[in-house]
Design brief:
Largest sheet: 6 strands, mixed
Helix content: 40-55%
Distance between the termini: 24 Å
CATH superfamily of the largest domain: Periplasmic binding protein-like II
CATH topology of the largest domain: D-Maltodextrin-Binding Protein, domain 2
Number of domains: 2
Shape: globular
């Protein structure tokens, strides 16, 4: 993508942020959760952290846990009115808005050093024998692309950072589930694909001897949210329960930061059936997670992402303020203990 393309997108993001009128103020969140309130939550990582740490005992309402997370599954559950709150990355709330599903983000966290601790790295097919060594070398190659998911937005941001446009590459639409991307790379179906989680190390373990390599993108790829349908947040009882859950979500984030060994054993080994080595690698890959008390910077970044994805998909851009419920903005950060590892210390963040 050329500078001439990037500048209008940046200008559009800024324009939207400045010109879109603020939404009407919602009713203040109730201070207490009414007796008998039930909240249906899809957030397996936090669920396990709360159980291992004992924080789960502090819930004053009933939680019905669903083994669901991520955009596609939780969006479907929202539409069926089978889920109230869930854990996702940056993109789901954007696409839900374009698909007439009214949702709001109610909590946000990121990584202390996102460039040193990326969620994704680009895998390069063994068939190219390590000839792709920089983002600029992506030109002319086939890239696995999953529109509507975080990996798809990362591909677009990477092209932007490299000064490339979509016409400079071939985007191959593939679902980013399971081992689809590593298999496609190994088979030569695509040349480049964003790999995450255990697929990063396993890809090199399996295909490194054949010439497979990894490329770092050097971008922030770490937004993590709790989100909820608007109708849940319009229900005073469920909104109050969601606020209490956000507080414990923040404290679970703090606990994971401070108890890596217990989390590796209790979640990755016992719950996810991964080896200790895989669990340790994932904890090290994540690094320290932090929770900002202000969403101003977050919303500005999201507005730019919306403009970028809108340009690629033909959708109408909008101000990201629309998909954040500011009533929840400070709840998570204020639930952390003084000096917490999860407090975003602005002087430490680039």
């Amino acid at each position: 993508m050329t500078d001439m393309t990037i500048r209008p997108l940046l200008a559009l993001a800024v324009s939207l942020a400045l010109s879109t009128p603020p939404a009407l103020a919602a009713e203040p969140l109730p201070d207490e959760v009414p007796e008998g309130t039930v909240l249906r939550v899809g957030d397996p990582v936090t669920q396990k952290a709360l159980e291992i740490s004992g924080l789960i005992d502090e819930l004053t309402f009933t939680v019905e846990w669903a083994n669901l997370s991520g955009g596609p599954q939780t969006s479907e559950a929202f539409r069926a009115h089978a889920l109230d709150v869930a854990s996702v990355a940056e993109i789901p709330s954007i696409h839900a808005t374009w698909n007439d599903l009214p949702v709001r983000n109610i909590a946000y966290r990121e990584r202390l050093d996102p460039v040193a601790h990326p969620i994704y790295r680009f895998g390069i097919t063994p068939k190219l024998g390590g000839t792709i060594k920089s983002l600029g070398d992506f030109k002319g190659h086939r890239i696995a692309y999953s529109p509507g998911q975080a990996q798809g937005a990362l591909v677009l941001r990477t092209l932007e950072a490299a000064g490339l446009g979509r016409d400079d590459v071939t985007l191959v639409e593939l679902p980013s589930t399971g081992d689809v991307y590593p298999v496609a790379l190994a088979a030569g179906q695509v040349d480049i694909a964003p790999l995450g989680s255990t697929n990063i190390a396993r890809y090199i373990d399996q295909y490194g001897d054949d010439g497979a390599t990894l490329i770092a993108h050097g971008l922030r790829d770490d937004p993590s949210h709790l989100w909820a349908p608007q109708w849940v947040l319009d229900d005073p009882a469920k909104a109050a329960a969601a606020a209490q859950y956000v507080k414990l979500w923040a404290r679970a984030t703090e606990w994971i930061n401070d108890h890596p060994e217990q989390f590796i054993q209790g979640y990755y080994v016992k719950d996810q059936n991964l080896s200790y080595e895989d669990g340790k690698a994932l904890v090290e890959q994540t690094g320290t997670q932090v929770i900002p008390a202000s969403w101003d910077e977050v919303i500005a970044r999201h507005t730019h992402t919306i403009a970028l994805v809108a340009e690629a998909t033909g959708n109408e851009p909008f101000d990201a303020e629309k998909i954040f419920d500011r009533r929840f903005e400070r709840i998570a950060a204020e639930a952390l203990s003084r000096g917490s590892s999860a407090i975003k210390k602005e002087e430490l963040i680039q």
